[in-house]
């Protein structure tokens, strides 16, 4: 019962955080929302990258097809790893396309009663598998991709960080940039005080073991929590543990009063950026939870920084005759 409550709280709060951000859009948000029209580009939906029903992606191709190479920006959807859809990010994907990028939203197999074996790790593998298919599909449409950025919100942010930090070396094209908001980056129990996992009790250790087992797809026991051997078991879904001196520039935003993912974990992420001299921008919404809904000024600064870093690390090349 305890772990059921933890999981349901985790999922419900994720969804409430997402909803609050959608309802309370500030006036400046329209600058990052573009209606997809033929003048902006062409949208292809539900392209396949695998055999599973959810292995689909949407591709937004810019109207200008005269460049020799294009940058790819992948944006992964939110939903607590249990819900959500790529179509929910149509506004930001259309905006990215209007900037001259090939923009892509990817669906992945969600953890639910129909897919009880899905977890953060299997989802991260699906994202990894999708990238070569995306590059090849773009090429077939006449768009040669030579670099990429990956991003997302909440659960999508976690998956984006895993790809950018764990899988960048095996990416078929160079990963130039990571950006995203409110995604869990690590699973140190002392950081997860929002669920009481930092308590030195059998109940807390059991709760952490069961929730982390579900998320990682790996059996973790209370004993592993106590002797800290669980950390190696969750490394494959802990983006922070893959940060090194070669980690790509990163822009992240977190809410100080987040009750879904641990704010303390984001501070640990910050220390990792600093230790390894990553070119980073770390934004704290001082009055907000998971939806960042009470700090529109900070969220605006975050988006302005995303735009500036895209221009710096993913510059759109001038048009040329092919």
From TrEMBL:
The record's section on Pfam families has: BD-FAE
Keyword set for this entry? Answer: Hydrolase
Where's the BD-FAE-like domain?
A: 58-271
Highest taxon, organism lineage: Bacteria
Q: Does the keyword Transcription apply?
A: no
One of the entry's Gene Ontology molecular-function terms is: hydrolase activity
Under which name does UniProt file this protein? BD-FAE-like domain-containing protein
Source species of the chain: Massilimicrobiota timonensis
